Amino acid sequence: MSDGTAPDLTDLLADSPSNWGKWGPDDEVGSLNYLGPEQVVAAASLISSGKVFTLQRLIGDPKGDPVWPGRTPATRTQILDESSWDGADAPQFPGGLHYADDKIDAFLQGSTQYDALGHVWYGGQLYNGFDARTTVGGMDKASVEPIAQRGVVGRAVLLDMARFRGKDTLDSAETYTHEDLVACAEAQGVELRKRDILLIRTNYLQLFLELGDKFYEGFCEPGLVYSPELVQWFADMEIPNLVTDTIANEVTIDPENGVALVLHNALMRNLGIAFTEICDLEALAADCAEDGRYELFYAAAPLKVAKGSGSPVNPLVVK
Ligand code: UVW
User: Does residue 85's CB lie within 6 angstroms of at least one atom of ligand 1?
Assistant: First the structure.
């Protein structure tokens, strides 16, 4: 919702770099094209200890599921369990089979997830110039499906911004830039290379667990903040995938210009960088702090949801 004073994204990002057309007029996976067989094989060579980390947060966590304001956490409904066989009308199977069944009603972006490249837009156009009307009733273009069909594998670097800043969690509305990412990598003794998948830890969602409903008062997550230089750095570094442990991967409202989710547009819509959100990086970060190894093999494949604007995922890191 515009408050009338913030600039329009069309003006703010008028000169921002774009990858539209770079991989052809039909491309729907954007900067993930930077992860070819060469990058996959190189990433596999980083596996040495065999330690496996899963980055998904629990769906239906008894402590609550953090979601973007306006979305609701998944609800799981038990359909069948042992009590289903208490009554006379219970289903009967030869041999006496009983079983449990359940279902969830969930926002596709209500937990750890990949955004489709067409998930956000301005000016009537999605990633690669697709018409925003192609979203009506389901995404005909740049949905999450092509990302899910393809999968994501590459070299990832964990950038532990919370530890780098000597904090348990970053604060609401706290920002960091690409220069902070570079400084963090240097402090961790890891080289940032072209085509790296960036995993950024803030541990901000710890506050969701501590504050309960108060977490949403004046909601403004910490994160990367827009500047033309930052967008150019992401373009030059050919970053394929931005992965964080916050709900939206960037500072919610830009403190300079008051615009919401500028980087969703500058990085995802314009450069085609895949966004992976609401990850749990805690066990991985503790391990990296212990062994000092921050370059990682990363693999993820969101669920194949036709026309989906996003999809749940349980990314893997293997050391
Ligand atoms: C929005 O962009 C509104 O949400 P998400 O954090 O899922 O990308």
Answer: no
**Same structural domain, 202 and 264:** yes
* Cβ partners under 8 Å of residue 255, min gap 6: 173, 175, 225
For residue 261, give the ligand 1 atom closest to its CA. Answer: 2
Question: What is the reported pTM?
Answer: 0.97
Ligand 1 atom at minimal distance to the Cα of residue 248: 6
Shared domain for 204 and 227, answered yes or no, is: yes
The residue range of the domain holding 140 is 10-65+108-318
pLDDT digits (tens, 9 = 90+) for 168-211: 999 999 999 999 999 999 999 999 999 999 999 999 999 999 99
Do residue 194 and residue 211 come from a single domain? Answer: yes
Domain count within the chain: 2
Nearest atom of ligand 1 to the alpha carbon of 115? 8
* Ligand 1 proximity of 248 Cβ (cutoff 6 Å): yes
- Asked if residues 74 and 59 have their Cβ atoms less than 8 Å apart, the reply is yes
